[in-house]
Every structure is written in C-alpha cells, then in structure tokens.
Predict the structure.
Amino acid sequence: MRAVRYGPPAVTRNFADRLTDAVLAKGNPVVVGLDPRVDQMPAFVEAERPIASFHEHVVAAVAPLVPAVKLQVAFYEAHGLAGMRAFAETIATAREAGLIVIGDVKRNDVDSTARAYADAYLGRVPELDCDAITVSPYLGRDSLEPFVEACADRGRGLFVLVKTSNPGSGDIQDERTGDGRTVAERVAGLVDELGAPLVGEHGYSAIGAVVGATYPEQAVALRARMPRALVLVPGYGAQGGTGADAAASFGADGLGAVVNASRSITYAYGDRDVTAVAFAERIRANVTRMADDLTGALESR
Amino acid sequence: MRAVRYGPPAVTRNFADRLTDAVLAKGNPVVVGLDPRVDQMPAFVEAERPIASFHEHVVAAVAPLVPAVKLQVAFYEAHGLAGMRAFAETIATAREAGLIVIGDVKRNDVDSTARAYADAYLGRVPELDCDAITVSPYLGRDSLEPFVEACADRGRGLFVLVKTSNPGSGDIQDERTGDGRTVAERVAGLVDELGAPLVGEHGYSAIGAVVGATYPEQAVALRARMPRALVLVPGYGAQGGTGADAAASFGADGLGAVVNASRSITYAYGDRDVTAVAFAERIRANVTRMADDLTGALESR
C-alpha cells in the first residue's frame, strides 16, 4: 500500500474566495463526484485497494481541468472501516493534486455533537479534513452554528441542504409556512444570515447552500433570497438536470455556484476492460463536455 | 489489542418486538448513551485504546440492567479512523453482552446514497452493523424508503428525527404548514405511514421516531399522530428533561418508548481516580435512579 500523507492545509483565506479563485483558474465550475461503486470500476484498478486506486486514476485525469472534487461519504461507509480508510486516502490524493475537497457528509446534530462533527470534517482531524462539507438544517440554527464557527476559524466552508435534487424533496422543503415562505426559503434565509459575516473578496460567503439542478424555477427564487451564498448544485447529468437548469443557481456575474456530476463523469467510460490511458481520456472528455455545456448555458442566459 | 468478533446477528424478528422484549425483560426503558469524551474518562482506562476500553467497563456494568445502548457516532468520528475502529469495537462489545445497539448516526441522502447508508449501518457491513439507527427526514419520503426496506428485510429499526431536544429545534420543526400541521407533525404522519407494514406483536412498529424530552406538550400531540411508533427520547438528564417529561412519549400501555441518557450516566461518577469497581457501582446507581424515576413517572400518569 502506498504511503499516505495526511494533514490539513493551514488555511485562513475565506473558503468562498479559495473556491472562486479555483473556478476562475480552471475556467469552469465543474465538481467531479468521487463515489465509489466498485462493481462499475474499470478492470485495471488495484484489486486489493480498488477505491483508493480508482480515485488516484480519476484525480490524476481531472485535476488539471476542474476546481474541486466531492466525496459522497455514504459510498465509502458502505465498505466499513476499509471504506473509511479509502475515504481518507482519496482526500489525501485530491489534496496532493491541488484540488478543493468537498465532503458530502450531510451531517448534523445538537450543540456539542455538531461540534464533534465539525471537528471531524472541518480541520481538526487530519485524515478526514475537508475544505467544505454538506450539512442538514432540520435541527435548526443552533445546530448549524458550531459548523459556521469552524468555517470562520479555519477557512472552511459549508453547504447547507436547502432544496435537494430528489423527487421527494418537496415533502418537507416545499411546504409553505406561516409567513408564506416555503421551508426551503426559510432555510435559504437562515443561510443568508449565517453567512453574512463570512463574505469574501469575490462577494460570496463561505456559508453556502445545496440547490438541486432538477428544480430550476425554485433555484432562481432561492438564489434571490441568498445572493451571497455559494451554491453547490447536484442533480446534473444522471439525475436529469441540464446546463440551463444548473445555470439558475449562479450569480449575475457567472460565479457563485459549482455543479457536481458523479456517474456521468467517472463511470461513463465504456467497457470495463478499458486501458488506464483511454479511461483518463474518456473522463476528461466527459468533464470538457460538461464544462462547455455549463459555459454555454451561462453565456446564453 | 483484544480480538474483536464482528458480525451481525441473523435476525428476522421485528425490531420493535426485540426492543420491547428487552425492555420487559430488564424492567425499564433506559438506553445508555456511549459517547466518548476522552478527557472525561476515568484514569483507569487503557491509554492506547481509551474509547474501546472505557466502553468495555460501561457495558460490563450496565448490561444486566438496561435493554439497549446508543452510540453517538459523531464523537467517534471526531477521533478519525481510530475513532471509527473504536465505534466498531464498541458495537461488538455491546452485542457480545446481549444489548440492543442503536447507532445515533442521523444519516440521510437521496436514493442509491440512502441505500449505501442503510447497507453500512443496517446489516450489510458486519463491523458497523446496528440494530437500529437515527435518520433525518429533511429530504422527504423517498429518502427514507431505502432505510425502511432494510428494516423490513433484515429485522432492523429506524428512529426518524421528528422533534429534537435542542433549543433551536423549532426553527424548522415547529413551523406550521398549509394544512395546519407543523413540520414535525407532518414528519410524524410520514413515520406512521411508513411504519404501518412493520407493526410487531407488541403493537409497535420497527419504524420509530426521535422526540425530545424537552418538549413534553408536543410529545403528547406527536404520540397521538403516530400511536404505533417506537419513540427514542433524548434530552433526559443533562439537557433538562425530567421523568414526567419523558413519560409523555410512552403509549398508554407504558411501553413504546425508550429514554436515552449519556453524560448523566457514564460521566457522573465523581473523581477521575475512581477504581474500576467503584466506577461500575456508580454508573449502575445512576441507571437505577433513572429507571426508578421513569417507572415512577409512568405509574403516576
């Protein structure tokens, strides 16, 4: 097994500025999802460490092209302790390649427990340290504050679930509350308030939101309620969201959002007997096609 | 390091029946929270594996007295990969002692990702396998269904966050929606529907709910909306909930709920130089006091 160098970068620069700088440097807002689905990996991955090996190939291929990667921790946890070790190794691989690491962990809990999660994933535990994570808002403002503090103290970022990409997202999120706002709109207001002290040089806050590409009309309304939030857009590609749909979450300056795709990039490579070289070419082509799609959609708004 | 025997029990019996049987056998509904706070542990714990060692002492002391333990995974994750290993070891220790294991993981995500979490914690991954877990409902019904399926297939249980114990829980959960129900009441309705096919011999369902002891009036209203749900009650003890408050979540038969306490049992033992024998006596006394408090509160309703 290859030696892994764990260790968080000592960052104080605002996460929103770091991510926006990376988007401008790479010229696109594509986030590549690193979701281990072992039965769909190419035959060339190392049999004894398929997850870490697969992601070394993916990261090497896409690091010159994209600003960030997003690790869906559920797919690592589904492989138990070995999976969590592969999660740590994949973070280290992505960091070494200069990529911003988003941990899609959707954690949340009350007070000291929320702080324990913030310690785990936002800068206190070297091997699990992410630049930003996703969190759930169901427990309310005081459950988010420990994460916000960690972001302020350690240059990390947060993406609060506002409107998710799944068909059933409306069950709770679309419910209209007493003041006429939907639950998602109330959470958007909370994101805007919590993020106000953490707005960076580019005008966006380290406290961001998740808004699915699958609900573009709501995305426009939600963006208006949180104009400074960085938005992480899931649901592009395999889940049905188009470039124009995703564009709804960007600011008027064409910044302020990043768009994730997982399966449509890393597993759309053809035959499992593909060579490593051909695999890298194909997933780079997937990234380029998506980047062009998003750029075109943003220009034609 | 002691050898750990991982491995899920092959269960098909309804989780609600298993938990209710255990409550009847032990004569109380106390769940002991196993939350590692290393700086608060007695000096006698093994220095090189404090978390696993501490919980061996706790489990040995309380296993004859209580039906279940609840592991708050955040406090393990805060110790990184070693912490997750300790989580697995603590599960194995509790299982070996015949205790029902509740994983307080508050996970949730969309479709195949929710399934990955269900695989991880509900019976597909031996070292992380719990009898039941907590999940968040923010993503809606379709995000809960993969967990419900795992419970049906593998005799596991679910506690859906309905009304949490923290001061800010009302921010989202208390909001009144279009049909007059609060968000928490809508989630309670969802729990009741999802749980209907999984009602066991004792009249309770394997699909349960989390309702904090800190909001007893709401607990009564929520119990009425989900009469068959097993309720996991946090917020007793250190968070301020009393026995009478917790009693609000029980069914008329005095069953249908379990009450968790963590700090007020495992860390209320006095001086850190306590002996292992005295530690065990003190935490057993804490359990007995809590069991008596709850029994008294249920009898005087």
The CA atoms of residues 11 and 155 of chain A lie 6 Å apart. Chain A has a mean pLDDT of 96. Chain A touches chain B through 59 residues (CB under 8 Å). Chain A has twelve helices and eight strands.
